[in-house]
Amino acid sequence: MEKGGQLSEKWKILFTIPNFDTAGSGKALLNIASRLDKKIFEPYIACLHDKGEFFKVVEESGIPIHIFQFTTPMTRRIKGLFQCWGISRQMKKINPNLIHSFHYAPDYSEAIAARMAGIPWIFTKKNMNWGGKSKNGWKLRSFLAAHILAQNTDMIRDFFHHRKNVSLVPRGVDTDKFSSGPKVTSLMHKYNISTHEKVILTVANLVPVKGIEILLDAFQKLSKNHDSLRLLIVGDNDNDYGCEMEKKATQSVYSDKIHFTGKVQDVKEYYSIADVFVLPTLDKGRREGCPVSLLEAMSSGLLIIASDIPGVRDILKSFPDSMFLAGNVVALYQKISLLLQIDFKQENRNNYRLRVEQFYSIHREVDQHQSIYEKCLTH
Fold first, then answer.
1. CATH architecture for segment(s) 2-172+361-378
2. Is the pTM of the predicted complex or chain greater than 0.90?
């Protein structure tokens, strides 16, 4: 890499994220930062605190981490701007060439601070939240950004269709790590699952938009006709909604076939014992940006059923029969019933994985990020 005919130093990229406690966004950040071309880019990370199990994984990556308050409330504008100036001084100490925000909220104070520091600032839009009280925040965040990375085409159409500084950059997965393989027998034993049973799996942090109640109701209907089914619900359920869903499951006559695992750092083993993956997200609120659990399941050779919503549509546009009307219990029940009848054809599994390899590999995602960084730093 050369600038002005002379060999330049590496470009320093500062990735910002509130925390690594909600590990989905943290894993996405680390997937990119740890795979950048080290001959060209030098990654750094800033977050608000060091809590969360995944923070230890980030530390082990060797990427320098800065803990400081890089956002501030802007309800009182004068005070907020004064705080932004202080944040900008912290940014100048790190002195990155570019800041890439993985913040999921409509905060724009970080962008103002970056402007004050004279550092280009970009962000990834990770969900479909935009309206209501947050609308002005998202507009200001977008106005201040040098570039915006959108995760699905509905997002670009609905929020950014007039903007030229927007790129479609969906999530990617490590297809070497997530591939079909032998079932992890220790997990089979843990849940007392026999080899003749079929396992339905969902992976999600349990919040109301995830539609777990739809899956539970569909499983209730399925179990009336199939006595060899299990349902695994993998994800953080340590909240009111999670408790509500566990209570709903215990009230089912098939409660002994439903298992809540809680938060799992590495879900690969759970994909190995599953047959069908279901993503029942509702078509409201923040919905999905580009659901990585869906991509991991496809790459792992599972059969797929997912809600027909933004984010999912891009991934499954070649497989329209794999989508169901969001929030419709009967539609989900019918889709899973059909899969049970076709005896899990291997051809479908292979086609899902091929789709991921072609359009959603982690290498493709990293290449797209590097191209955007270079574009922002050379124009």
1. 3-Layer(aba) Sandwich (3.40)
2. yes
